[in-house]
Description:
Chain A: Belongs to the binding-protein-dependent transport system permease family. Chain A is built from 14 helices and no strands. Chain A has helices at about 1-30, 35-40, 50-60, 65-75, 100-135, 140-155, 160-175, 190-220, 225-235, 240-265, 270-275, 280-290, 295-320, 325. The interface between A and B is medium-sized, with 23 and 31 residues.
Amino acid sequence: MGSVIRIVLQRLALGLVTLLIVSAVIFGAVNLLPGDFAQAVLGQSATPEAVAAIRTQLGLDQPLPVRYAQWLWDAARGDLGVSFAQANFASFTGRVDPSATVLAQIGPRFANTMFLAGVTAAIAVPLAVGLGILAALWRDTAFDKGANIATLSSISSPEFFVAYILILLFAVVNPVLPSLSNIFPGMSFGERLEKTLLPALTLTLVVTAHMMRMTRAAILNLMAQPYIEMARLKGMRPLRVIWRHALPNALAPIVNVVALNLAYLVTGVVVVEVVFVYPGIGQLFVDSVKLRDIPVVQACCLIFAAAYILLNLTADILSIISNPRLRHPK
Amino acid sequence: MTPLLEIRDLRIEGRSDEEWHPIINGVDLTLGRGEVLGLIGESGAGKSTLGLAAMGYVRDGVRISGGSVMFDGIDLMNASTEEKRSLLGRRIAYVAQSAAASFNPAHKLIDQHVEAPVRHGVQDRGESIEDAIELYRKLRLPNPEEIGFRYPHQVSGGQLQRAMTAMAMSCRPDLIIFDEPTTALDVTTQIEVLAAIRDIVDQFGTSAIYITHDLAVVAQMADRIKVLLRGDEVETAPTREMLDHPREDYTKSLWAVRGYHRPEKPKPGPESVPILAVEGVTAAYGEQVVLNEVSFDIHPGRTVAVVGESGSGKSTTARVITGLLPPRDGVVRFEGEALPPSYRQRSKDQLRQIQMIYQMADTALNPRQTIAQIVGRPVRFYSGLKGRKLAARVDELLDQIEMDPAIYRDRLPGELSGGQKQRVGIARALAAEPRLIICDEVTSALDQLVAEGILKLLARLQDELGLSYMFITHDLATVKAIADEVVVMKEGQVIEQGPKTEMFTPPHHPYTDLLLSSVPEMDPDWLDRLLAERGVEALGEAATDKM
């Protein structure tokens, strides 16, 4: 067990280093964006003095490494700064409106995104793994081919197209679900779930194919193993052979592809959010880029990167734990 | 009484290249209750296929195209899937060649043991666990109460093979198919497993089909022996009769293979400089020391066999000599001159002098290159020959390994047999014009007749080209056949070394003695005698008493 803990700690440390490198890349890249906030907010007719004043106030006149160090130091303490767009620069009071901090801006949006990702994962992961197992069990049958074709077509269609088809089917032709997902604080869980269902179904259709095909492939990959033949020769039923003998040994690749898809759900769902007017972090991110609201953009990027790293880390750790050689050393 | 198993005119085909090819061409097999039938033949003879067909099972890409399999009055050819499944594991069980690969790495031994009895409704989990412990005890596994609660990787190969036999016994089947159960084991471990299998089969009166390519092993285990050759039966006879009076030429040739013997060359004079001297070599993988103060010499034109069980450090020694693993301590000298520890620091000429041939010719040859390309590359690399001269040299090398260049130069490795691939491996080593060739278990994966051909080829090349060989093997029959000197290794140390005749004449070092006495002999009483000598029969009786 000691070796597992050591490996986990190693991976955690590596994850932190990766996050640090990514943060530097984010900071550098965001500052490469053409134009700046002062220019964007004051418009074409601003006097150079006014622009300079705002730049000074925001610290934009400092050299890049200094700004990076300051930002990193603050971020490490949980302070992601103040949204440029929300702070009231006209008043020049120097006081910060609490609702203008980046955290206050991102917090609720991030919670919404996590809710959507959670609902999607709750549907998609069992569905994909289940379909993958059945496709492996009934390999080369009509079911296998049908599942492959269906999931491949859904992954090959653009997300917005899938979304509009679902809206057409479930909100227009059979109006059972709302087409707008305008959720807000204070809604009950049931209401939230109802509003989230259509975007979650859309995303399910997008992510299922990848996970299902990997599950199927990982299981089939093992079917030529002598211990699978042994299980058959002990008279075990095909489903039991797969469930009990193949699946536990196929967990590592499956967990990894699941983690990749969950990371996508956290970071890559802008289009679906736009179609359903879902107040998630993706929309906030796009709006902030448009406005050159650098603190928000940076914070979003950092969250995305952290989500990717964390999920992959979890997958790594789970696949390590799924290996009995590491769990039970000689 | 009707026989337990009756196979009539069984025909089996396998699919390759979109076509069905025959694997078994109409074989009959009858097995009485309590009888053990030995099934013997070279690889590709269809032994395993026939063994599995006796269970009504065929692998993917294989089909039964005719004949009948009757198990205790049940027609397995026409039985429903459900009916067959209820027999498998319960009345017919299987013991596979590699227990390490055939136990599921994700589950404890005991969970895999109880699966068949519980699922078939023979016993509940608690009863089955108790029974497993009893079987482990009968099979003389250490810590029978605890060993089942380990994962496969925590148990040694020989113990796993016994645990697998226990698993096969879990439902007290009428028939067990043993498919080369000791082939992957060291000789000393093989003894224990053979004795354990024989005891338990005797005790329960189980019928068995014992598949192997090793005649001496089958002689210990079987009441009757059936010889297969490329899907046809050659002959069947009771064990003693078959050993004493084989009728068919093929059977006789199998028996004769073990007769190959190359006389030991005269000892090198005192002034002879060893072509290779390993001096006090200690080597480690990370922290783990795997070689400890290993020293031996190889004199020009001689064959030194390095023997030992798996994990004894034989192959690691080869890695140190070739510079793949720089030693922690000690030095390797070539004709008296110290070689740089790492191959990276060695000159092209130093590299050229020592070549290797590997056990798995299959994986050591690039499947996408023709034979001429494979052999031609080292020729070009070491001698710089090009064009027609290169082609001529390649043809010459192919002639040396007795493969007609006109036929083979443009073939791919996939189109060759195992023995031919190994010959190409030899040609590739010869291409560098080496002085010393390290042969790492080069005949272990080959059938006896083919292996003998390779040994004869190597001997001829040695005489013609004055080559020296370091011959790594765990097979003492091979050592007897070709070695001039023997180095016995155990746990990274040289236990004993000397000329072959001395090594095979008592007194031995106790470990050498154990190794030598563990090699099965073509005598049906060998195992009994050996166990009696070692005082093991007492244990067998103790196990019987517990019944």
